[in-house]
């Protein structure tokens, strides 16, 4: 039985340095997903006849591999053959020049095994495991050479929603938003924990003023109230009247006199000067003006004040089919591939002197923090 997997990815670098990086045994541990350990068994580590022994971690399996180079077109293509137990395989890596400073990396792996060894069901599972590892490896190459087009880059049907479309989406879901968002716990998405992490990252003191962009139903208000106290001030901004109505009910029920609600597009909101913190959870990347919003908020922060964003992102190491399945699950809340490639942490690095980002939920979500510096005297 013969099976194969073939994948490709674009990277922003010239052809030769990409090829040299990808075929250098010293780099295998950096980018080859599942590479646990290994050694070169010939005097030369590259070129025709170079041989390797290494250990592959393929899903739950840990497998010894022997492999050697059979053809070598230095600077463009290398072909390998090897064995994993009773399974013989061949692999090829080639790099095409697709424009100035841009290359396309192709990987193909083909293997043969007796039909009795795995059967069709087992072969399908192995093929999926191999495809996932190849895709993870290509994602690491993309990161090694800087921004590049993603293997799951947005298509025309994946465009981000316009603000009026977002308002309609959330207007329809406002009454049941809190209940529905809690259902994501069933797939391990720790939404309450992530919200607490975001508020903690603000490092607010009693009496502080905080702005929440995309406050929605006010789900974060209890956490913010505990942080700033009754002497503090909370300004909630949202585009959707139906969501703000839910927030008003929450405020009245809790008797919070220090909460102000503002209905407007965040792109046109005027941040009050000297705020101590700005927060956005699962909202900012829905706006095409997210970069300008961050810049205006950064200028309004008091010295040492913090901008914090908790949101979704495109995971680097997920196979494309899983990315699209996750996006489909979250699409009723405005999540698209077009919004998933917006990176607020890059905006923080441009607008604020200190910033950092932490990935959550296996890379499908993030918590980004930016800290304002001292104002010039």
How would you characterize the overall build of this protein?
This protein has about 375 residues and is an alpha/beta fold. The chain has 2 domains: about 1-145, Alpha-D-Glucose-1,6-Bisphosphate, Chain A, domain 4 (2-Layer Sandwich), CATH 3.30.530.20; about 155-370, Vaccinia Virus protein VP39 (Rossmann fold, 3-Layer(aba) Sandwich), CATH 3.40.50. Helices cover about 35% and strands about 30% of the residues. Strands 1-7-6-5-4-3-2 form a 7-stranded antiparallel beta sheet. Strand 11, helix 9 and strand 12 (about 300-310) form a beta-alpha-beta unit. The longest helix is centred in the middle third of the chain and has 30 residues, at about 115-145. The chain is elongated, with a radius of gyration of 25 Å. The protein starts with a strand and ends in a 6-residue tail after the last strand.
Give the strand order of the largest sheet, numbering strands 1, 2, ... along the chain.
1-7-6-5-4-3-2
The CATH topology of the largest domain turns out to be Rossmann fold
Specify the CATH homologous superfamily of the largest domain: Vaccinia Virus protein VP39
Named at the architecture level, the CATH assignment of the largest domain is: 3-Layer(aba) Sandwich
Shape: elongated
Give the low-confidence spans.
none
Total strands: the figure is: 14
Q: Report the average pLDDT across residues.
A: 87
Counting H and I runs of at least 4 residues, what is the number of helices?
12
**Relative helix content:** 25-40%
Q: SSE order in H/E notation?
A: EHHEEEEEEHHHHEHEHEEHEHHHEE
Rg over C-alpha atoms, rounded to the nearest angstrom = 25 Å
Number of domains: 2
Instruction: State the separation between the terminal residues, measured CA to CA.
Output: 74 Å
């Amino acid at each position: 039985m013969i099976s194969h997997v073939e994948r490709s990815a674009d990277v922003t670098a010239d052809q030769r340095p990409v090829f040299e990086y990808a075929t250098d045994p010293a780099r295998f541990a950096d980018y080859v997903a599942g590479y646990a350990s290994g050694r070169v068994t010939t005097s030369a580590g590259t070129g025709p006849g170079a041989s390797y022994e290494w250990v592959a971690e393929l899903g739950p399996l840990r497998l010894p591999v022997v492999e050697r180079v059979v053809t070598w077109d230095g600077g463009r293509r290398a072909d390998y053959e090897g064995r994993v137990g009773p399974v013989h395989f061949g692999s090829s890596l080639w790099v095409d020049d697709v424009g100035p400073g841009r290359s396309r990396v192709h990987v193909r792996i083909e293997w043969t095994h007796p039909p009795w060894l795995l059967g069709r069901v087992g072969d399908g599972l192995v093929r999926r495991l191999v495809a996932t590892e190849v895709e993870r490896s290509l994602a690491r190459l993309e990161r090694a050479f800087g921004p590049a087009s993603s293997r799951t880059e947005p298509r025309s049907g994946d465009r981000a929603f316009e603000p009026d479309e977002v308002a309609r989406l959330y207007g329809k879901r406002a009454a049941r938003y809190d209940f529905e968002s809690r259902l994501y716990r069933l797939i391990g998405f720790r939404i309450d924990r992530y919200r607490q992490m975001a508020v903690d990252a603000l490092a607010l003191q009693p009496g502080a003023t905080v702005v929440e962009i995309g406050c929605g139903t006010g789900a974060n208000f209890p956490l913010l109230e505990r942080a700033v106290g009754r002497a503090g001030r909370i300004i909630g901004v949202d585009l959707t009247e139906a969501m703000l109505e839910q927030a008003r009910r929450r405020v009245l029920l809790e008797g919070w006199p220090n909460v102000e609600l503002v209905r407007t597009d965040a792109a046109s909101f005027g941040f009050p000067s000297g705020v101590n913190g700005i927060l956005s959870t699962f909202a900012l990347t829905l706006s095409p003006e997210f970069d300008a919003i961050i810049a205006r908020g950064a200028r309004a922060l008091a010295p040492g004040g913090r901008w914090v964003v908790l949101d979704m992102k495109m995971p680097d190491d997920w196979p494309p089919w899983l990315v699209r399945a996750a996006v489909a699950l979250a699409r009723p809340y405005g999540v698209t591939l077009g919004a998933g490639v917006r990176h607020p942490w890059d905006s923080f690095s441009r607008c604020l002197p200190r910033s950092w980002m932490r990935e959550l939920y296996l890379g499908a979500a993030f918590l980004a923090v930016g800290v304002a510096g001292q104002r010039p005297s």
